Amino acid sequence: MSAAAGCPLCEGPGGRVVLQAPRWRLVHAQEAGLPAFYRVVWQDHVREFSDLPRDDRIACLDVVTTVEEAMLRHLHPAKVNLATLGNMVPHLHWHVIARFDWDSHFPGPAWGPAQRVADPARVRVIEAALPGLERELAARLRPSP
Amino acid sequence: MSAAAGCPLCEGPGGRVVLQAPRWRLVHAQEAGLPAFYRVVWQDHVREFSDLPRDDRIACLDVVTTVEEAMLRHLHPAKVNLATLGNMVPHLHWHVIARFDWDSHFPGPAWGPAQRVADPARVRVIEAALPGLERELAARLRPSP
After folding, report:
1. For the whole model, what pTM was predicted?
2. Does B65 touch chain A (CB under 8 A)?
C-alpha cells in the first residue's frame, strides 16, 4: 500500500463505503444532487490511470463496468457517465454516475452548472433502488481481489 | 458496422481525424480552448461502454491508455482527464484531455465554466508538440485492429 500525506482519498473513504476490496473500494457520493453517484477508488495512491499495470487497469475497469451494468438494470438511467479526472484530487478514482433526463444537471456533466431542481419524488425513487443495486454489486464483486 | 441516423458521430468524424482503425478512430477536438483534447470514438453506434464485449472494452481502453501515456511523455500535463459521458451524443466516445495548471478550465473539468484566459504563448507550445505526439501514436497504434 502506498499512501500520500494530505490526500483526501488516502486519509478518508471519499464517500459512504459500499464495498472494500484489497485493491479498490466502491463508495457512494452525495454530490451535485445526483442520487446515483458512485466512485471506484483505487486503494493505492496512484496518479494516472496509465500508472497502473495493464492487469490492474483491466481489473479496475471490470469493476467500473459491473457498476454500470447494475445501474442500467436497477435504475434505468438515460445514460451512465464514467470519468477519471483528478485535477483536484490526483488519486485514481473513477466516477460512475447514473444520469436521468430529469436530473439536476442533465444533459450537462455532473461538474457543470445545474440546469434545474430535480423533482424530489423522482430522486426518492432512485434512492429507494440503491440498496438493491448495492446488494447485487456485493454479490457480483465480492470474489474480486 | 451499425450506424444511427442523425447521430453526429455516425455521420461525421467528430474532430480532426488523427487515426482510423477498423473498430475506433482517434480525433483531435477544438473544444473549450484546451489545446490537447482528443477523442477515441468507437466506429459502431454503441451507447454504453458496457454494451461492448469485454475484449472490445479492453481494446478500447488500451487505445485510451496509449494516448494518455503519449500525452504524459510529450506534453508533461498536470493531469490527464478521461471520460465517456454521452448525454448529448450517446455514441461511445472517450475524451482524453491533457490538462495544465494554466489552462482555461484548470482545476475544473473541461465542461465547467472557464476559470481564466489561457496564455496564448503556452497554448502554442502545446500545439507545437501535437505533431510529435500524433506521430508516436500512429506508430504505436497502427497495428491495432
Report:
1. 0.96
2. yes
